[in-house]
UniProtKB/TrEMBL annotation:
Glutamine amidotransferase type-2 domain ranges (all copies): 2-233
Name recorded for this polypeptide: Gamma-glutamyl-hercynylcysteine sulfoxide hydrolase
GO BP term, example: ergothioneine biosynthetic process
Record pathway: Amino-acid biosynthesis; ergothioneine biosynthesis
GO molecular function, one term: transferase activity
Gene, per the UniProt record: egtC
Transmembrane segments: none
EC number, UniProt record: 3.5.1.118
Organism superkingdom: Bacteria
Keywords: Glutamine amidotransferase, Hydrolase, Transferase
Pfam families cross-referenced by the UniProt entry: GATase_4 (PF13230)
Reaction(s) this enzyme catalyzes, per UniProt: gamma-L-glutamyl-hercynylcysteine S-oxide + H2O = S-(hercyn-2-yl)-L-cysteine S-oxide + L-glutamate
């Protein structure tokens, strides 16, 4: 399993989103509060973001080491700010490689995508371009190949083909934030400065709300919609 988050709104530093919150991704890497599968997320971390200057190309920093041990990132994160971020800490699926290329967020050059869960890769559509042989990377390549407009449809199809799959997705393209809940937790904090989606709340702000299972979340232009994945029950 993993823990991940997505941010879309006014520019915030990666330190504000990942390291400084009392229950942020840094703490979730060794003491998650709501994780249902596994105890630690020590098999790598990654952060992807878009330039404030307006470039459409996402930037990424990924590592196979635990987030708590990466002092280089801790020293630079306060200086890295973005209006759109996808970040994750990883607990590798048994048998999957522990390497930076297997760590979210994955990208097709436009979108950033993180997968929290597990899936039998034999049920996924055949496609090229996976960044790693791990299940999350292959799932990401399948989603990119189909297109993010079809995210909900693909998740329903994969979930039907693999009833044990857990398919929580967070994806962003700089102006839009998409997510799914399928088998694990996701919470949302929507304020005047933007919206954050996270596997679990990173603080005790009472405005956090829990997203029901098997739903699609779509945030853009300051608005957020949450809709049931039809046909998923």
């Amino acid at each position: 399993m993993c823990r991940h988050l997505g941010w879309l709104g006014k520019p915030r530093s990666l330190a504000e989103l990942m390291l400084e919150p009392p229950h942020g991704l840094l703490v979730q890497s060794y003491a998650p509060r709501r994780q249902r599968h596994g105890l630690l997320n020590a098999d790598g971390w990654g952060a992807g973001f878009y330039d404030i200057a307006g470039s459409d190309e996402p930037r990424r920093w990924r590592s196979a080491m635990p987030l708590w041990g990466d002092t280089s990132f801790a020293s630079v994160a306060p200086a890295l700010s973005s209006h759109c971020v996808v970040a994750a800490v990883r607990s590798a699926t048994v048998g999957m490689p522990i390497e930076a290329s297997a760590t979210a967020p994955f990208t097709d050059g436009t979108w950033l995508l993180s997968h929290n869960g597990v899936v039998d890769t034999s049920v996924l559509p055949t496609c090229a371009g996976a960044e790693s042989v791990c299940d999350s990377a292959i799932l990401a390549a399948s989603i990119f190949s189909r297109g993010l407009e079809s995210l909900g449809e693909l998740i329903i199809e994969v979930g039907a083909a693999d009833p044990r799959a857990r398919l929580n997705i967070v994806a962003a393209n700089g102006s839009r934030l998409l997510a799914t809940t399928w088998g694990d937790t996701l919470s949302m904090l929507h304020g005047s400065d933007g919206v954050v989606l996270a596997s679990e709340p990173y603080d005790d702000d009472p405005r956090w709300i829990d997203i029901p299972d098997r739903h699609l979340i779509d945030a853009r232009g300051g608005e957020v919609s949450v809709t049931a994945l039809e046909g998923s029950r």
